[in-house]
């Protein structure tokens, strides 16, 4: 009765799922396999994770109960007609991790009826992600339980309406790049005022590592900001510069632009 999970497309995202699910595989709770077209990549993943890596997508799907599709959208669209014609996904539960591929497209182009669509944040790479998830009308309550239990190995799962996925992508999916740019700017600012790059990076790393816990203590970022800022102090002067430059508004505009692009891709 062990659930067999096949990861279709073992690129960067697919490997994150391999890594996160391997402990459940080793505990005998699930069986995990994957597929990749390149021999070198199959051998690399086989050595790294000691899991079966198929050369054939068809064989992987046929041998799986749940198929996690981590192909690039254009790869899926190129293969979908053939997959639909072969009825590969008949009676299979499918989890799509493909940006811009809707549940309707999975059904119409891939013949996939019982489908989950998820959008993960980058944190799934170290099993600390957040995943938005929605499902087709063919999904049963037990399917939700099984899939949420499996995905919890990679982080937290939230149920979200499909029409909110573009917003999740713009904020959660693209968000690491915005935060990385802020981190980079802070490190460079430390160097500019005389700190070594290594010390500056250490300060900024600690700053971000501690920030989530501090926000939980103060309940909202605005209260944390007020706690740090004293009248006419260093923080007040720094924030004045940021506000005058419209940094907050520009960040909001960046997320809006990303959201608009995500909508265009659907």
Automatic annotation (TrEMBL):
Stored Pfam families? F420_oxidored, P5CR_dimer
Q: Where does the Pyrroline-5-carboxylate reductase catalytic N-terminal domain start and stop, copy by copy?
A: 4-100
Q: Does the keyword NADP apply?
A: yes
Q: Please list the coiled coil stretches.
A: none
Which keywords describe this protein according to UniProt? NADP, Oxidoreductase
Enzyme nomenclature, EC number: 1.5.1.2
Q: Where is the Pyrroline-5-carboxylate reductase dimerisation domain?
A: 162-265
InterPro entries from the xrefs? 6-PGluconate_DH-like_C_sf (IPR008927), NAD(P)-bd_dom_sf (IPR036291), P5C_Rdtase_cat_N (IPR028939), P5CR_dimer (IPR029036), Pyrroline-COOH_reductase (IPR000304)
Q: Which GO terms describe its molecular function?
A: pyrroline-5-carboxylate reductase activity
Protein residues bound to NADPH? 57
Identify its protein family. Belongs to the pyrroline-5-carboxylate reductase family.
The family database entries (PANTHER family) matched by this protein are listed as: PYRROLINE-5-CARBOXYLATE REDUCTASE, PYRROLINE-5-CARBOXYLATE REDUCTASE 3
Quote the protein name from its UniProt record.
Pyrroline-5-carboxylate reductase
Q: What high-level taxonomic lineage is stated for the organism?
A: Bacteria, Pseudomonadati, Thermodesulfobiota, Thermodesulfobiia, Thermodesulfobiales
């Amino acid at each position: 009765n062990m659930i067999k999970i096949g990861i279709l497309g073992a690129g960067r995202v697919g490997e994150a799922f391999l890594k996160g699910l391997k402990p459940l595989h080793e505990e005998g709770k699930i069986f995990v396999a994957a597929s990749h077209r390149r021999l070198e990549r199959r051998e690399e993943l086989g050595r790294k994770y000691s899991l079966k890596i198929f050369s054939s997508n068809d064989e992987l799907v046929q041998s799986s109960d749940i198929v996690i599709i981590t192909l690039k959208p254009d790869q899926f669209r190129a293969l979908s007609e053939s997959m639909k014609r072969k009825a590969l996904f008949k009676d299979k539960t499918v989890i799509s991790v493909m940006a811009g591929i809707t549940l309707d497209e999975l059904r119409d182009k891939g013949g996939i009826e019982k489908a989950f669509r998820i959008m993960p944040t980058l944190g799934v790479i170290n099993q600390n992600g957040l995943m938005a998830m929605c499902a087709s009308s063919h999904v049963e309550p037990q399917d939700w339980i099984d899939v949420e239990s499996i995905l919890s190995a990679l982080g937290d799962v939230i149920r979200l309406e499909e029409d909110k996925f573009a917003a999740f992508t713009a904020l959660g999916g693209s968000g690491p790049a915005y935060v990385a740019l802020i981190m980079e700017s802070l490190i460079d600012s430390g160097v500019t005022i005389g700190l070594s790059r290594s010390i500056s990076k250490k300060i900024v790393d600690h700053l971000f590592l501690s920030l989530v816990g501090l926000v939980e203590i103060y309940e909202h970022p605005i209260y944390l900001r007020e706690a740090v800022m004293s009248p006419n102090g260093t923080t007040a002067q720094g924030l004045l510069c940021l506000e005058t430059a419209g940094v907050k508004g520009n960040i909001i505009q960046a997320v809006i632009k990303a959201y608009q692009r995500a909508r265009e891709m659907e």
